[in-house]
Structure formats: structure tokens, C-alpha cells
Amino acid sequence: MIFLMFTSLLEHGSAVAGIPMLYPLSTLCKFCDVELSSCNGTGTCVTNCGITSICAHHTEVCVAIWRKNETSSSIETLCHEPTISLYGVMLDDYNSSTCVMKEKNTTGGAAYICSCSKDECNDRLSFPPIVDATEETQFLSVILVSLLPLLLVGLVVLGMFYWYTVSRQRLSPDWDSAVKKRKVGGLDCSESCAIMMDNGSDSSSTHANNINHNTEPLPIELDQMVGKGRFAQVYKAKLKQTTSDQFETVAVKIFPYEEYASWKTEKDIFSDTDLRHENVLHFLTAEERKVERQYWLITAFHSRGNLQEYLTRHVISWEDLQVLGSSLSRGVAHLHSDHLPCGRPKYVIVSHLQFMLKFHHS
User: Which residues form the Protein kinase domain (predicted)?
Assistant: First the structure.
């Protein structure tokens, strides 16, 4: 009875019912000298070793070594202490329960070695998959072919950017000198600053600055209504000259008495001389017509009227589209800019005003 109990303790290597373990058991390993093997170094194979041995010390682990020469391959199985080198190699995976082969450079040449700590775990060997050099080369070729178009596009973009930069630098002196010498209605841009002439309208900003701003209303005769909005109506009108029968055609935007706030907002914006530009609708003056209980804004008149309405009713040519786009972009750029053409800071920056259609005919 006592003998059986101690035998059980030895087999399980553990304490039972408070009885301490006598000593740790050693691992059972396949233990054969170097033998010929049918393993080909791929997948999983069995050593076919018929000898199982109890390792001499409980710290020893199971080891398998597979070697291959020009004609054959061999396997060696044994127990070994992992803290001691084996054929010049230290074991590094002996805590595993399976024997996974790793290629090592031993004192006897290249070999595959595995180590593990489970009973007879060195009988079944697992080799790492072999990467086919041809498949790897094909994979790299596919990647290179896929990236080649992107690389070419990138080179083209860089080339265009370089060409643009060089061309801009070459043209920069001529462009700057042309801008400085450019005249608008006889005025140098560097001197006009706030006031620029509009050769495409029936009135000029020079005339706008000389308009009589007395309390008496200007001699304006309304001709016909050319537009109507939510807050006001727009009329084509005649601004008569006091000394002759001549007149100038102007546009009059009439606000009812109840829309004083809208009229004042537009008047304040138009009155800022920093906003005057050849591609922005020119403002002449604002009037409070108390007798008619109306508020007026008088501006330059453009016979083609509102851009939206004109484009709705007409198809324009490519040349006119270029002129129109250029005019709009220059006008919007001036409104959004924080400096005047001469470089002086502009204190009022407007998001946008009403865009008017103005074609300049040569």
C-alpha cells in the first residue's frame, strides 16, 4: 500500500493530501543517435526513432537536429541541458510544447534544430514554410508595375511645376514693369489708388466725384424700369446737365420709405472710395427724396443689365466668356483684397457686391 502511494507520487510529481513532492520528474524524450531520415525539410515529419529515454536531469529538454548533405538527410534526437551550448548553438525555444525547426549555424555546418519540454515532443518535427524565390520576385514585379504609373504622374506634375516656376520667374520683371506702366483712363495705377476710370460705362468716376451733393435733388428724369427686387426697383434714367440739353444715362435704384435700413447699408458701402475699381459698379451718389418718400441710389448704367438675367436669355461666345470671367475675377479680387493697387491698406473689405455684366469692346 505504501509502495503504491509513493509510486503514484513519483508518477505525478505532485503533492497529494498534504504530502510534499519528493523530487521533480525528468522529461521523456526520443533518444537516438544520428540516423537516416526521410524528412525533406518541409511541412511536418516523424523521426521514427524507437527509443524513448528519461533525461538524466529534470532540467534537460528534448532536442532534435536535422542535417542534409548532397545525397541524404539525417536526424539526431537527444536530451540536453538548455543552459549549455549544443554544437556551438544555445537553445532558445525549449519552453515550447512542440518542436519547431529553426535553421542554425552549428560547428558542423548548417542544420535545423528544435527543442521542447513536453514528453516525446521531439518525435514530431515541424519545418517552417519555404518561400519560393520565383513567387517573391513576381510579387515585387506586380508592386513595381502598379506603382510605375503613379511615379510617372508624380514626375510629370513635378516637371510642370518646375516649368511654371521658371517661366514665372522669367516673366516676372516684364510683368511688374507692365503693371507699373499700365494706364487706366489716363491715370497711372500707382497714383490713382482709390479711384479708377470705367471706360465701359456711360459715366465716369471722375464725374462721380464732381457730382453736386447739395440738399437739392439732382435733375434726374426716370425713363423705364429695368429691374425689380425684394427691397427696391431699378430704373434707367437721364441725368440732365444744368447748362445744356445734354444728359447722361444712369441707373437709379429706388427704395421705398420703409426700406431705409437697406438703402443706408448699400449707401455706406458704395460711399467708400477704397472700393472704387474699373470692374466694380460705379456709384455716383445717394439721395433722400422726402417728397416722394423714397430713397435713391444713383449708379452708372450698363445697358446689358444683370449678369444672371443676361446669361439666362443669351448664349455668349468663348471670347466674351473670357472677357467676362476676367472682369469678374478682377472685381472680386479687389473687393476681397486688404490693399489697394498702389499698396496702401484698404480699411473696408467687402465679401461681394452685385456682379454686373460689362463687356469692353475694342
Answer: 220-362
Annotated binding site: 253
Residue list, annotated binding site for ATP:
253
Over the stretch 253-275, which tens digit does the pLDDT of each residue have?
Answer: 999 999 999 999 889 888 887 77
Measured CA to CA, the distance from residue 79 to residue 57 in angstroms comes to: 9
Cα angle value 241/245/248 (rounded, 5°)? 50
Q: Cα–chain-centroid distance for residue 174?
A: 35
- Considering only the top CATH level, what class is 192-336? alpha beta
From the list 58, 61, 57, 33, the residue with the least C-alpha distance to 47 is 33
In degrees rounded to 5, what are phi and psi of residue 207? -65, -35
Give me the sheet containing 44-46, strands edge to edge: 44-46, 124-126, 99-100
Beta pairing partners, 314: none
**pLDDT tens-digit series, residues 193-247:** 534 434 444 444 434 444 445 567 888 889 999 888 888 999 999 998 776 778 8
Q: pTM to 2 decimals?
A: 0.40
Break the chain into its structural domains and give their ranges.
Answer: 23-126, 192-336
Q: In 3-state terms, what secondary structure has residue 53?
A: strand
How confident is the model at residue 309, as a pLDDT? 81
CATH topology of domain 23-126: CD59 (2.10.60)
